[in-house]
Write a structure and sequence with these properties.
The complex is a heterodimer of chains A (289) and B (788). Chain A is of the alpha+beta class. Chain A has helices at 14-24, 37-42, 78-82, 92-99, 104-109, 112-118, 124-131, 149-152, 226-232, 238-245, 262-281; strands at 7-10, 28-31, 50-53, 63-66, 69-73, 135-140, 143-148, 153-155, 158-159, 166-173, 179-185, 195-204, 207-216, 223-224. Chain A folds into 3 domains: 7-53, 2-Layer Sandwich (Uridine Diphospho-n-acetylenolpyruvylglucosamine Reductase, domain 2); 58-173, Uridine Diphospho-n-acetylenolpyruvylglucosamine Reductase, domain 3; 179-284, Enolase-like, domain 1 (2-Layer Sandwich). In chain A, 31% of the residues lie in helices and 26% in strands. In chain A, helix 10 (238-245) runs antiparallel to helix 11. The termini of chain A are far apart. By secondary structure, chain B is α+β, with helices and mostly antiparallel strands. Chain B is 29% helix and 25% strand. In chain B, the strands form 7 sheets. A 7-stranded mixed β-sheet of chain B has the order 3-5-1-12-9-10-11, sandwiched between helices. Chain B has a 5-stranded mixed β-sheet with strand order 7-15-14-13-8. In chain B, strands 18-26-27-28 form a 4-stranded mixed β-sheet, sandwiched between helices. The chains are: A alpha+beta (289), B alpha+beta (788).
């Protein structure tokens, strides 16, 4: 329960952080809120040689509106995301999701960028970013680049970020006029999701004009459910939503662990998709509970 | 001793809380001694393996390391193996249990080497450098698999994995079953549980080489018992060992009712190295190396008439002992052995238990110890009987309750001190609004919605006040059941209470202060309670099994009475009257008929200290002791009610109400009693819905941290509704019974019964513990003809 020994540097600028990481080599890791990395270090499952503390880089903190998008700095805490008034329309999903992460202590220390960089398939934010077609911005010694969320998460705890790159933030389309919901199923309030479903829905008088589904912990990365999304188009009744939700079975078999078998996980996803879509649609006739 | 009770029964704030809430608690982790060294253990990653070699050379050469030792290096330190004090049968198999394994490791976590260094970090780092060559053997982790033919043997020296079989029969069981209209047979499993005290275990041992004296600080519930056992294990004269449980021990729940490898090891290392040695468990290390609880398979059959009157009971259980026998592990099922008939009647009773070795962390007493398991079985099976004969779940209990009275004979063989079970059930039903609940349930069922509701009852009786020493002898328990107190008036009129109980969260300092303050007629702020140090409190049997109030608390009460008796003689002497001419009330003696001629306790305390004028044959000082050995156990009881909502689509269970009506006799402090009920209920609900330690086939503990061993938080519970009935015990002069474990004992079956009730219209009759959403979902699916 005590980490193996490591060196520690506190960066005073992004450039300094990047050069410290470069000097530290492949075992150097950036440290933000520490809520993913430090537990692994305490179990000695992670043994970085150098931690570069980027927690003081104010330029990476904050939420701002930029036209049709919202830009959120990597060091913005979950608590700050949960309260961000800039997150309107479908992008309000991020605030909903952030509000349900961990407990108040976690939400006040844990950061959006840290959660994204950690790429835990059981984390809530990645699926929400995927459902919102967000872009992840990265800084490296060669400059900045953007990667679509769909390309960023490449496997369990693996992302498209290269060694020495730092996640600087995300850019999220607002999707004005769309509704959203996140249904997270867990045993205890502070647990990771057994299954989480993010739904972003454009509800019109004619029913669902567009729907995006992001799934947490249904595979090695956050997943979209294209079959479900296609089947939701034009749906206007509960029965149609239920039928569309069943298309989640077209995805690859989800993982099994001590909390849920694959079969149960798939069943949960189906139930939660129907509930999330109904809630996101915001139409009384669609509500199921 | 006629006194007006000023403090007893009142909710005075706990004396312990200000320091705990403001960070002034004195926990063992904070103890540092000059020159102190730190130990880190190397533990087996295998469930079963032969140790071919242990190479400590790299660790020994690491920076800061003072010693690195294997089990073989330490073999000469032990005068005996780790103690087991409850050999329940004459033919019980008791394996050698060395603090550090010497040739074979038998569970993941079994110690194989120790590294001692100048800092904890250095010790932990160097422990990773110890190289152990193992020959991995086949492990067995399940009690039934362990008893199968050809199962891998945990101890090669025994023919199979059975440790003992203990049986009890009362009456003609076969005859009772032969004449029954109905027989209900059920099988339940008690998941293995991991105790989670807030404070992990820790120990510091210090030796004085020139005198051979040792001081051992340990996060223990049993400093006095441990002192005896340390002497035996290490071959140190008992008089040269002082054991101190720190002023604050952060919870135990039975997990600190033991003598552990690390305690013996730190003493041995202190002796060997001549310096203080400290060990502090990490949380996950504790999951491997601190005892676990439960892990039983139960088969229970009850025979009854067609109107649901129980005639007889047959119970067979398999109880996991783990890889070795810890201090009282074989006896844990015996604490439940007499309770598989609960608070119900009947003609005949048979109980049989087999203790089984498996390649797992040893089990032992965990909050309730045997009684939660027994209560679960009887309270589940009586619901099954209710369904079978078509009688309401509350009514079936009422029909079978033992009659109210003192010393009521139970089919299990015990005489219950003060039985009166219906009022608690009635009160619980009233708080619930049972009729209102059933109509809401009927409406929901008719509506066919996904959220269905259910209610579950548990009318329990349990055993506290351990124990009459002669009864313990008949159960082959290796110690007595008495406890001790000394009460001493100080010259300034304050009082000092020395207790043999060893509190670790129970609030003894507050409760003992209330008892003494009322008896002595002084403010409760003026009472100091000393405990937990064998040099300060020379006698004690310590704290476990909800025994402290009913044994040690009664000893305090009796010792106070003796102080008042002595004070009466002194008062009579000073007032120049006969002792019988004095009246005593609230700390003041007054001459009958002359109320202004008085002597107060503080005046008498000062007079006894100065000793200027004492009665003939009287000694200076005003103090008295009592060693109290109770004549009988106490048997608290009550009815608990759980109300759940079950999401029939996902299987998620939402506990919406929890009602506990307990009868622990007269209450010393209602705030403390409510706290014990709340905590106990939370632990029982945790077992019903969340917690389960599981092992992979190779002996790996899968639930090795709080990430997947699901200890619930406050967010998972509703506000508990508590109430009480008060039926004084006849087992002691205070009428008190004990309340430390009742919540845990009563709660799990209430919750599971509620889930089954919510789903009974769908055909569900059982959901295993813990009732995870997937298990509930599968139970619904199976009941409706699908796959389980």
């Amino acid at each position: 329960m005590i980490p193996a020994s490591f060196d520690y540097e506190r960066a005073s600028s992004l450039d300094e952080a990047l050069s410290l990481l470069a000097q530290g080599g492949e075992d150097a890791r950036p440290l933000a809120g520490g809520h993913s990395l430090l537990p692994l270090m305490r179990l000695r499952l992670a043994r970085p040689s150098l931690l570069v503390d980027i927690g003081g880089l104010e330029e990476l903190r904050g939420v701002r509106s930029d036209g049709d998008s919202v830009v959120i700095g990597a060091l913005t805490t979950h608590h700050e995301v949960a309260g961000a008034s800039e997150l309107t329309g479908g992008s309000g999903l991020l605030a909903t999701v952030a509000e349900g992460i961990g407990d108040p202590q976690v939400r006040h220390r844990g950061t959006l960028g840290g959660s994204v960089a950690h790429a835990d398939p059981a984390s809530d934010l990645p699926a929400a970013l995927l459902a919102l077609d967000a872009e992840v911005t990265l800084a490296g010694r060669d400059g900045e680049r953007s990667v679509a969320a769909a390309d960023f998460f490449v496997g369990p705890f693996m992302s498209a970020a290269a060694d020495g790159e730092i996640v600087t933030g995300v850019r999220v389309p607002k999707r004005e006029g769309w509704g959203s919901a996140y249904r997270k199923f867990q045993r205890r309030a502070q647990d990771w999701a057994i299954v989480g479903v993010a739904a972003v829905v454009n509800w019109t008088e004619d029913g669902i004009a567009g729907a995006v589904i992001g799934l947490t912990n249904m595979g090695g990365t956050p997943l979209r459910a294209p079959g479900v999304e296609a089947a939701l188009a034009g749906a206007s009744e509960k029965a149609q939503i239920l039928a569309a939700a069943s298309k989640v079975s077209e995805l690859e078999t989800p993982p099994a662990d001590e909390n849920a078998s694959s079969e149960y996980r798939l069943h949960l996803a189906q139930v939660l998709i129907a509930r999330a879509v109904a809630e996101a649609a915001g139409c009384p006739g669609m509500q199921r509970d | 001793m006629a006194t007006a009770e000023k403090y007893v029964g009142g909710g005075v704030p706990r004396k312990e809380d200000p320091k705990l809430l403001t960070g002034q608690g004195q926990f063992l982790e904070g103890l540092t001694l000059p020159g102190m060294l730190h130990a880190a253990l190397v533990r087996s990653p295998h469930g079963s393996a032969r140790i071919n070699s242990v190479d400590v050379s790299a660790a020994a050469a690491a920076e800061g390391v003072v010693a690195a030792l294997s089990g073989a290096d330490l073999a000469d330190e032990w005068a005996a193996g780790l103690p087991m004090a409850w050999p329940v049968t004459d033919d019980i198999r008791i394996p050698d249990h060395w603090p550090v394994a010497q040739d074979v490791v038998r569970y993941v976590g079994d110690a194989v080497a120790v590294v001692v260094a100048t800092s904890r970090n250095a010790a932990l780092d160097a422990a990773e450098l110890v190289e152990v060559d193992y020959e991995v053997l086949e492990a067995v982790v399940d009690v039934e698999a362990a008893l199968a033919d050809g199962a891998p043997r945990v101890h090669e020296s025994f023919d199979d994995n059975k440790s003992y079989t203990w049986a009890l029969t009362n009456g003609d069981v076969d005859a009772a079953f032969a004449k029954a209209d109905v027989v209900v047979a059920e099988r339940y499993t008690q998941p293995r549980l991991i105790p989670n005290a807030m404070e992990p275990r820790a120990v510091v041992a210090q030796s004085v080489p020139s005198t051979g004296d040792f001081t051992v600080w340990s996060t223990t519930q049993i400093p006095h018992v441990a002192k005896v056992l340390f002497a035996l294990t290490l071959g140190i004269p008992e008089g040269q060992i002082r054991v101190i449980a720190p002023p604050d021990v952060g919870g135990g729940f039975g997990s600190k009712l033991n003598v552990y490898a690390e305690e013996a090891l730190c003493i041995a290392l202190a002796r060997r190295l001549g310096k203080p040695v400290k060990w502090v468990a990490g949380r996950s290390e504790g999951y491997l190396a601190t005892i676990h609880g439960r892990d039983q398979v139960q088969e229970i059959e009850i025979a009854a008439t067609s109107d649901g009157k129980i005639l007889g009971y047959r119970v067979h259980i398999l109880a996991a002992m783990g890889a070795y026998l810890q201090l009282v592990a074989p006896g844990v099922p015996l604490l439940g052995a007499f309770l598989y008939c609960g608070c119900y009647g009947g003609e005949a009773y048979h109980f049989e238990c087999t203790g089984v070795f498996t390649n797992t962390t040893p089990t032992d007493a965990y909050r309730g110890a045997g009684r939660p398991e027994a209560t679960y079985a009887i309270e589940r099976v009586i619901d099954a009987l209710a369904r079978e004969v078509g009688v309401d779940a509350a009514e079936i209990r009422r029909r079978n309750f033992l009659p109210a009275g003192d010393m009521v004979q139970s089919p299990g063989g015990l005489a219950f001190d003060s039985a009166d079970y219906e009022p608690a059930l009635d009160r619980a039903l009233e708080l619930l609004d049972y009729d209102g609940f059933r109509s809401d349930q009927a409406e929901r069922r008719a509506g066919g919605g996904r959220r269905q509701t259910g209610v579950g009852f548990s009318s329990y009786v349990e055993i506290c006040g351990l124990a009459p020493s002669q009864v313990l002898a008949s159960l082959k328990y290796g110690a007595g059941g008495w406890d001790a107190a000394t009460v001493r008036m100080l010259p300034t009129g304050k009082a000092e209470v020395v207790t043999g109980s060893s509190p670790h969260g129970q609030g003894h300092v507050t409760s003992w202060s209330q008892i003494a303050a009322d008896a002595l007629g002084i403010p409760y702020e003026d009472v100091t309670v000393l405990h937990g140090d064998t040099h300060v409190a020379p006698h004690g049997m310590n704290t476990y099994g909800s025994r402290s109030l009913a044994v040690a608390g009664v000893a305090v009460h009796n010792a106070c009475g003796r102080v008042v008796d002595k004070a009466r003689g002194l008062a009579a002497h000073l007032l120049e009257v006969a002792p019988e001419d004095l009246e005593y009330e609230a700390g003041t003696f007054s001459v009958k008929g002359v109320p202004d001629r008085t002597k107060s306790m503080p005046e008498l305390a000062f007079a006894a200290w100065t000793a200027h004028s004492l009665p003939e044959d009287s000694e200076p000082g005003l103090e008295a002791s009592c060693v109290y050995d109770p004549p009988n156990f106490t048997f608290p009881f009550g009815t608990h009610v759980a109300v759940v909502e079950v999401d029939t689509e996902t299987g998620a269970v939402d506990l919406v109400r929890y009602i506990a009506v307990d009868d622990c006799g007269p209450v010393i402090n209602p705030v403390i009693v409510d706290g014990q009920v709340h905590g106990g209920v939370a632990q029982g609900i945790a077992a019903a819905l969340y917690e389960e330690a599981t092992y992979a086939e190779d002996g790996t503990l899968e639930t090795a941290s709080m990430v997947n061993y699901l200890v619930p938080s406050a967010a998972e519970f509703p506000s508990f509704e508590t109430d009480r009935t008060v039926t004084p015990s006849t087992s002691n002069p205070m009428g008190v019974k004990g309340i430390g474990e009742a919540g845990t004992i009563g709660s799990a079956p209430a919750v599971i019964n509620a889930i089954v009730d919510a789903l009974s219209h769908l055909g569900v009759t059982d959901v295993p513990m813990p009732a995870s959403p997937e298990r509930v979902w599968r139970a619904i699916r199976a009941a409706q003809g699908g796959e389980e």
